[in-house]
């Protein structure tokens, strides 16, 4: 019989977080996701994915959880690597990969100036690994070339410099596809210097789908690859880092050290497996929808600053006299609102075609209003002001 004191504590501890309207709330959330263009990280698990996840094994992953181990082995196999490691996030996966490659400072890591590891991981390479990041602007304004890497890699033993130990590429990068021939050239050069290649392959799935290239071929030039399940593939959580057995054993130790040793991860592994089986095949239609959106925007007169090579488009509405704020505000006032960011538009497996049509209608309507108000499209400038107009202009959605 519980004492009064214990009953009182149990009363304080308990929580029912299901609101009276939780079922309807989730129906509404699914609708909102289908009309949200800010990222593919907002994709949500489907009832079928949840159903499959409940059947996963119940082990503790610090002691090797069977479903998680099966996922790791599978991802290692399809990427042609010896071993895999389930990670809580893409950031953890990239940063632990760098930490595992980097042994003794001083050292530097080369990447594209737009790379996630440089711009959006809170300077984690400096914090976790004591590494300097050398962000390069690709000379062709699309992807780094072997010349860009050669010209900037620090190989000198001069004590004034931090030698480059890792070249970290990203594919896709802002939705663009890194030509595989160039990756192979970079890899051959980097390896000839005894240095390492890491790939942030958060969306490598999109490259495989779009170019019909095997994951193994795409990953072959790299010593380590991080692949995410929680973005374009629509799983709720997780990434997988792959590499040699020795590399992954060391990364496992760093994952624990950084507090990322997780316990009953079987449900997450099963969601990832479900996503690989059922959601990967949806990517070609995602890319087709992105291309439809791009064609519609172009037809209205908007500048496309980074093309829909996969699931992302970057655009600039200045030529039609409209701002991102005007588009976002108008879209948020629709009877069925759209959620838009700034220059970046992301199409994902749960984007509805009607949302794409609604987005185009908003832009078209604003363009026509501006024209009626006397706006005249300026002549395209020949002075190349900024070749990096595809830099991500963020317009955060108003909080709901
Ligand atoms: C290319 C890329 N790499 C890594 C990450 C980091 O993933 P996470 O948000 O799971 O840490 C993201 C996140 O969107 C990403 O877009």
TrEMBL record:
Family classification: Belongs to the threonine aldolase family.
Domain spans labelled Aromatic amino acid beta-eliminating lyase/threonine aldolase: 37-314
Listed name of the protein: Aromatic amino acid beta-eliminating lyase/threonine aldolase domain-containing protein
Transmembrane helix listed as a keyword: no
Alphabetical UniProt keywords: Pyridoxal phosphate
Highest taxon listed in the record's lineage: Eukaryota
A Pfam short name: Beta_elim_lyase
Cofactor(s) the protein requires to work: pyridoxal 5'-phosphate
Gene3D superfamilies the UniProt entry points to: Aspartate Aminotransferase, domain 1 (3.90.1150.10), Type I PLP-dependent aspartate aminotransferase-like (Major domain) (3.40.640.10)
InterPro entries to which the protein is assigned, alphabetical: ArAA_b-elim_lyase/Thr_aldolase, Low_specificity_L-TA-like, PyrdxlP-dep_Trfase, PyrdxlP-dep_Trfase_major, PyrdxlP-dep_Trfase_small
